[in-house]
Amino acid sequence: MKPIPRFTGVIKNSKLHLDDIESYNNYLLTLEDKRVELVVKKEEIARTNQQSRYLFGVVYEIISESTGYSKEEVHEMMKSIHLKDHKEVNGKRYTVIRSTHDLTTIEMTEYIENCKRFASQELNLVIPESNRIE
């Protein structure tokens, strides 16, 4: 399946100002005489490198040292606990584990807090706060 192009911009005085109007116009040419659907929503910003560094370098590191599992094993375990989702295919329900790469900054902040809460409640660990994880 071909990815759907994303166009970003800002709304000023009820008008849309696109960041790359030329690419947008070129894309519209490919849709000539076709019905389309336009969805406008607040841009979701992907998780930050700072959040990932804090997650792996602090949160997972402390859990890893305490449990003896590698950081990658801790990562898989935390995802299976906190990023479990369910999908239906032909009436059958399947469990899928989301990737942290797909999380927005807000979702990543929530995920980190869930991991810290798990460490506190289940392992009696104290995870230091990040100066800024968003």
What is the fold's blueprint, element by element?
Elements: E1 9-12, E2 15-18, H1 21-29, H2 49-67, H3 71-82, E3 84-89, E4 92-97, H4 105-123
Antiparallel strand pairs: 1-2, 3-4
How many whole angstroms does the radius of gyration measure? 20 Å
Biggest sheet: strand arrangement: 1-2
N-to-C SSE string, H for helix and E for strand: EEHHHEEH
Average the pLDDT over all residues and give the rounded result.
Answer: 90
* Total number of strands: 4
Question: Strand portion, in percent?
Answer: 5-15%
User: What's the main sheet like?
Assistant: 2 strands, antiparallel
Number of helices: 4
Could you explain how this protein is built, in words?
The chain is an alpha+beta fold and 134 residues long. The protein has a domain at 49-123. Helices cover 44% and strands 15% of the residues. The protein has four helices and four strands, in the order ββαααββα. Helix 2 runs parallel beside helix 4 (105-123). The relative contact order is 0.14. The model has no long low-confidence stretch (mean pLDDT 90).
Offer a concise description of the structure:
The protein is of the alpha+beta class. The protein has helices at residues 21-29, 49-67, 71-82, 105-123, and strands at residues 9-12, 15-18, 84-89, 92-97.
